[in-house]
Amino acid sequence: MILPIVAYGAPVLREVSQDITPEYPDLQKLIDNMWETMYASNGVGLAAPQVNKPIRLFVVDSEQIINNLEEDETNAYPGDHGIKQVFINAKIVDTEGDEWAYQEGCLSIPKIREDVSRPEKVKIRYMDENFKQHERTFHGITARVIFHEYDHIEGKLFIDYLKPLKKRLLKGKLDDISKGKIKVDYKMTFPR
Fold first, then answer.
1. What residues make up the domain containing 59?
2. Is 81 annotated as a binding residue?
3. Is 71 considered catalytic here?
4. Fewer CB within 10 Å, N or C, the chain?
5. What is the pLDDT of residues 103-161, one digit of tens each?
6. CA-to-CA dists, residue 112 to 6, 93, 124, 138, 178, angstroms
7. Which residues constitute the catalytic centre (predicted)?
């Protein structure tokens, strides 16, 4: 089932999410719905707060990006083959490498894309959908998507990384999003 995506301005997007246990009600159904919602919205990642659930859960499919690189971009992310993965109760263990800028967007902040600088690599501890624990290091565009989705479960948004002047310039657009004065081709709910 395709779930509505929560728009900028909703309090759930600013909450630090809670860990969950395997007994979380209808967890597999929620994960399936998040995948369906993400793909229906043309996203490459989706965090539970974006579907109004303040829990530490997100899904990432960076294979879509890697598999759709233009011919002249194929060497842009060496060794990054992309992933399609569920992250539960994730915690960043370490980051490393030089920061690099990339134009990010967010399904909860439609029609705004801005350069955000993030480290090259992220080491993260998480559980998969079977609650098996993992600790892995990701790099390239996969690390980028993980950082972005991880921020959601920490109550952060990519616009928080922008310089104050840039944020002021975007204020009108952000206000329009929070008031529902925007048209998107996927289901959204707006703050009241």
1. 5-185
2. no
3. no
4. C
5. 999 999 999 999 999 999 999 999 999 999 999 999 999 999 999 999 999 999 999 99
6. 15, 30, 28, 26, 13
7. 149
